[in-house]
Write a structure and sequence with these properties.
By secondary structure, the chain is mostly beta strands. It has one helix and ten strands, in the order βββββαβββββ.
């Protein structure tokens, strides 16, 4: 497995480094870094800080994704999944969480709240044209295959 070096800055004493929970995990768990626990009511969303900032190298991005265990057990997800952390962003990583469940959920400092995946990206060179090539699908969109 290839590795890329990502610099991490801890912004508060209670912040934790992201951690791969298994040897072959694709994502590192991100931890909540809160002064006080935060309760999320059903349907409510909030911004949860992680207490870390990253220096992701050029040519890569960080993707913040939901944790499947929180989704199935508590109905928690991320509003903008996957969230993107650009290589030139140096601010605190924060996670926009939402409670899709039927019960209030409390998030405490140190709780694993999301996954972080570091992945290569390519910027596109756009070419303005009058016509696009044709395909069998053409403009078939949502549900077009049945």
């Amino acid at each position: 497995m290839s590795m890329v070096d990502v610099q991490v800055k801890l912004l508060r004493d209670t912040a934790q480094l992201p951690v791969y929970m298994t040897e072959l995990a694709a994502g590192m768990d991100l931890f909540a870094c809160l002064e006080e626990s935060q309760q999320l009511l059903p349907g409510q969303r909030c911004l949860i800080p992680t207490g870390i900032a990253l220096a992701i190298p050029a040519g890569y991005e960080g993707q913040v994704r939901p944790r499947s265990g929180l989704a199935i057990k508590k109905g928690l997800s991320l509003v903008n999944a996957p969230g993107t952390i650009d290589a030139d962003y140096r601010g605190e990583i924060k996670v926009v969480m939402i409670n899709h469940g039927q019960e209030p959920v409390t998030i405490a400092c140190g709780d694993r709240i999301a996954q972080l995946i570091i992945t290569p990206v390519h910027q596109a060179s756009l070419t303005l044209v009058d016509e696009l090539d044709t395909t069998a699908r053409e403009a078939g969109g949502f549900g077009h295959t049945g």
